[in-house]
Amino acid sequence: MEHSRLLELLGEMSLEEKINQLFQGNSMFYEEDGIATGPASQQGFTEKTIRETGTVLGIIGAAKVKKIQKEHMENHPHHIPLVFMADIINGCRTVFPIPLAQGAAFNPELAKTGAEVAAREASASGIQVTFSPMADLVRDARWGRVMESTGEDTYLNSRYAEALVRGYQGDDPKQPGKIGACVKHFAGYGAPTAGRDYNNAELSERTLRDDYLPAYAAAVKAGALMAMTSFNTLNRIPSSANRWLLRQVLREEMGFDGALISDWAAIEEIMNHGMAADRREAAKLALEAGTDIDMMTTCYSNHLKELIESGELSEALLDTSVLRVLELKNRLGLFENPYKDADEEAEKRLILCQEHREKAKNAAKETFVLLENNGILPLKREEKTAFIGPYVEEKSMLGAWSIFADPEDTVTIREGVTSYGANALFASGCSVLDPQTSIMGMSELYKNAKTQTDLDELLGEAVDTALRADKVVLCIGEHVAQSGEAASRGDITIPECQKKLLREVARVNKNLVAVLFNGRPLDIREIKSLAKAILVVWMPGTEGGNAITEVLYGKTSPSGKLPMSFPCCVGQVPVFYNEFKTGRPNDAQSKNRFLSRYLDIPNEPLYPFGYGLSYTGFTISPVRLDGNTLTQEGTLTASVTVKNTGKRRGAETVQLYIRDDAGSVVRPVRELRGFQKLWLEPEEEREIRFEITAELLKFHDIHMKYQAEPGSFTVFIGNDSRTQNQAAFTLL
Ligand code: BGC
Which of 136, 140, 263, 434 is catalytic? Predict the structure, then answer.
């Protein structure tokens, strides 16, 4: 539709019709057959609000969406279509590994492929916008939502955020099989105090700008149609009411011109935060701040009219937000094609098709991180291997947000190993959760009915099985509902019954491999002390069992690298590689008491950012620089030669870190500024280059000016964030 026609449409709409465009409905509004119904009115929504709703959340299914849309448009005074939105995070029905795992692949293209598959399945089922990517920087493993992020690094997150947007939207979200992206949660949601979900975030403006904002900005630059505010207060102001953050930073500085939605009930929560006295004031603050759409409350629908009629808010402010919603619909092509790609036949054909499963499997294989291996891996098909643990037959390994997927479609480890034809024994050993415990997931209660007696029996069987095998693969980890939204944890270890299983099995069979399922970095000191190999498989998705089998048996070498440090224990958290130098740096050898360190634990994480092994070995040559000075407009090339020195094909992720040796403000000890993942055959070697420009050296200086300061820099190139392979240059 021509933009001028959108303006005309806006002009034709009544005040209430406009306000209702900013209201987001959900499935409770519609009966099975797609008719707007009564229950919603019991929640304070009028029939009129429902009839004129602008967007809806969480309704999926081609037939259903078409029916609701048809009816809605017929009843709407101006026949304006709805936008169907949902959380399609790491897949729709074919589920890819969780985002944190995707970060471990150090391969944004792979995430793009995942987003393309998700968009294809979701759009056939009627979804037009997804609430993804989550570009929140995460440093605190206690926070359950670290699983939805790609990790602790600004540069890595930025590359993923833009790749995901491109995957969902393609060149034009109107195109068949594409959906709109919504970058979230703006801003600083990944920094909740003490790792407790929904808690406040206090970030200096410099930290916010240098570390937290770039990934959101990358998604905006890549063209994300929407953005979502965050639940948290940022420096004491709830994001949905933060005019500076939303108007100046997001819109003016980042250039975001799409529709901005609140997070679930976040407008009403301005009141809970104590910044608004009531819903009316919350609505006023949110609209003034620039929040366009009210997700899941009646603040806008019940109060904006009065606020405008009394002159407390201008109608022009409302019009700006309504126009953005109309523009969103137009960018998705909904005025011409309100059903977009919703199609029952395509839905049947695409969902869980072989091609999608294959892509999910390949993605999963690249996300696994090998933390330890004394040579016990890869396994051999003929050696007798006991697969023991609650994850051997577990199907819930899709991650907390896979709300539209059916765990029944998941390939378990037992199924994967069996179809591979390996010489294997199986025993569950215990349940994922401790006996008689339950945990609430995103939408269902996971109840563990097993008693201690049941578990004793399972443990006995597991020990017998371990005794009969050459090697044991222990499949253990967190429950799927122990990470995700509202899943903060103070103890980041595996459940007690699994610890017992680990100890008992390790007692009778020392050839122990641990396969670890997790939605966050865990404290795995005990696992490390007992296992000869550790493979982190996160929440691997629909094809988990096949992918794990192929990696364990060496069909593919593991190639993941940690996107987030694994702390030695929770006492270190938040622990991340790009920290600042203190005035009293630690020196392990020193007897000086007055150093920045703990008395009882090391400063360093158990496994650092960027770390991960392979079945083969690599060497990386010393860093070569093609000069020792760089100008503000120039380019310096840093190169290394990487060689596969082992006997198998494998991948190394070569990482470029830069340290600004001295700045007008204290600078991080180093920062990731490039990475390249390359697969090499045995004996193969390749030169790889990184182009260094002043752009990569910029930060907010003492005057909050974003610039690269002349001076000396150190370049590190290696295979994890501890590398000491370095060279120096000066920026003129
Ligand atoms: C989450 C968002 C999500 C929204 C809609 C909220 O609880 O914080 O990430 O997109 O719900 O489901």
Answer: 263
